[in-house]
Amino acid sequence: MIPQSFIQDLLNRVDIVDVVGKYVQLKKGGANFMGLCPFHNEKSPSFTVSPTKQFYHCFGCGAHGSAIGFLMEFSGQSYPEAVRELAQSVGMSVPEERDRLPPGQRAEQQARSVALSDAMTRATDFYRRQLRSAPQAIQYLKGRGLTGEIAANFGLGYAPDDWQGLEAVFGSYRDDNVSAPLVECGLLIESDKRDADGKPRRYDRFRDRIMFPIRNTKGAVIGFGGRVMGQGEPKYLNSPETPLFSKGTELYGLFEARHAIRETGYVLVVEGYMDVVALAQLGFANAVATLGTACTPVHVQKLLRQTDAVVFSFDGDSAGRRAARRALEACLPHVADNKTIRFLFLPAEHDPDSYVREEGTEAFATQVRNAMPLSRFLLQSVTEDLDLRQPEGRARAQYEAKPLLQAMPAGGLRLQIVRELADATGTTPAEIEAICGLRSDPARVGRFAQPRPRTRRQAPTGLEQRVIQLLMCYPALSARLDEDARALLLGGESSDSEVLAHLVEACDSVQGEVNFAAFSEHLAQSPYAEVYAVARAAVLREEIEEAPAIQDFDAAITKLLAEPLRRELDGLQAEVVAGTADEAAKQRMRWLVGEIHRRRQLG
């Protein structure tokens, strides 16, 4: 876990205007900055960034958050990834990483990472320059229907047919200081053969190939895919696994496609680099590809951070079906009732590029819309080639389905698939549950147990909500609550008291200056995150200055305290009428009458 104190310190140092400004064109508008929202299509700006609150908010789609939240939403990064990127931008080290290595080793590792990244950037520039003077490569790309604009957008290049082409950029490969980072990041291959002086022979991995730079979610080049232009094997040559690049976690074209994915509402996963680039040329800029490896659960997780809808496109032959089955298995742990995953199988003679060119964009768009839902593909996978008229066929279908259903989280989709499988195999949903081990409690096997109704906390309203808003804006206001006020406000058993007690405790724990974004991130990790989200949205709609906030807070607290005092007074008056009140109770009653009168005047 990353300590909350570190998050607070980080967000105090980061300027959200700079972070968002790298991706959104912002203009000053009063105290805030305005721009077109990157999370939905709009023609007039409703997206605002507050330098005082260090928060962004869109009044059109409701998206809001801190600098961390923006990177997660915009780039599809995980929470730790977004924190690490922000920390690196201001020269901080995330405690988890900092404490793992001694300072000297940490500095060495950082220098090594910088050297590898620099090598990849320089190599990218070299390949791009080489493309301009390679007529055969230019002709090949034109023959595939690509324009110079789309080639530039994807940073396409050409690796010359030269065993030491990169020496023109980096210097002699015989120099170990030059060659070591190039070997480590996969640009050079080090042979077992040695020269007369004992040095290993080193040569370029990529030769006479169209070069496709592979970028991470931040846009940095971390690897390459090289494609032959004629006959030759392998057709695609990929960078090896390196400290920068892991095929099982990266997707080609995701950085370039991120805007189109948001605009279209789905991501299209295809099988090759050229498919991605060609589809972007033909109007489908939301396509990405796996990197010469099967789709992994990490790939799926990364895609579902970008969008709620994923369409996998595969060839309709047996190899395509096998690849689709592996993708299905990778998807199952991440399916959810609010996510849509579909599978598109093109005719065997087509890939997406050729299909669009021959049949047209609308025909391909129709194919995408009619792609097979995950549920149907799963059921088809476990029943194909089986004779469901026979007990053996039905039993085999249940056997094949068991690991797939077990991989899925419980939910509505799994429930529907269980019911359809039961219909197909002549059983009941309860029997499928039992056979597949979907119920951990033996007493509940054999029936669909009704889920316990979720109890929803009642959100504070009126004065309580206003106090929460003011405390979120200015945590130091909690110091204005004396012991009596805290006992009366926070000691009850209502949900309002629970939330206020938690918030006051959080305010009390704040040390030094803390901005709104940092404090909001802290509250978002609490059990009352939903209540705080409502209050945060209200805060973002108005500018609350500190001086009026103090007056507003004191007035609200005064009114809130009047009610518990009134209830106590009513109880004591009842004791006096009944003749059971002692002298202490009568004295307390007299104090309450005066206190309530005083608070009414203040209010």
From TrEMBL:
First and last residue of the signal peptide: none
The keyword DNA-binding belongs to this UniProt entry's keyword annotation: yes
Gene Ontology MF, one: DNA-directed RNA polymerase activity
Zinc finger regions, CHC2-type: 37-61
PROSITE patterns attached to this UniProt entry: TOPRIM
Cofactor: record remark: Binds 1 zinc ion per monomer.
GO cellular component: cytoplasm; DNA-directed RNA polymerase complex; primosome complex
Listed cofactors: Zn(2+)
GO BP term, example: DNA replication, synthesis of primer
Top-rank taxon, per record: Bacteria
InterPro entries per the UniProt record, alphabetical: DNA_helicase_N/primase_C, DNA_primase_core_N_sf, DNA_primase_DnaB-bd, DNA_primase_DnaG, DNA_primase_DnaG_DnaB-bd_dom, DNA_primase_Znf_CHC2, DnaG_bac, DNAG_N
Sorted UniProt keywords: DNA replication, DNA-binding, DNA-directed RNA polymerase, Magnesium, Metal-binding, Nucleotidyltransferase, Primosome, Transcription, Transferase, Zinc, Zinc-finger
Catalysis: reaction(s): ssDNA + n NTP = ssDNA/pppN(pN)n-1 hybrid + (n-1) diphosphate
EC number: 2.7.7.101
Domain Toprim: 265-347
Root EC class: transferase
Similarity-based family: Belongs to the DnaG primase family.
Complex and partners: Monomer. Interacts with DnaB.
Function: RNA polymerase that catalyzes the synthesis of short RNA molecules used as primers for DNA polymerase during DNA replication.
Name recorded for this polypeptide: DNA primase
Organism, scientific name: Cupriavidus necator (strain ATCC 17699 / DSM 428 / KCTC 22496 / NCIMB 10442 / H16 / Stanier 337) (Ralstonia eutropha)
Record gene name: dnaG
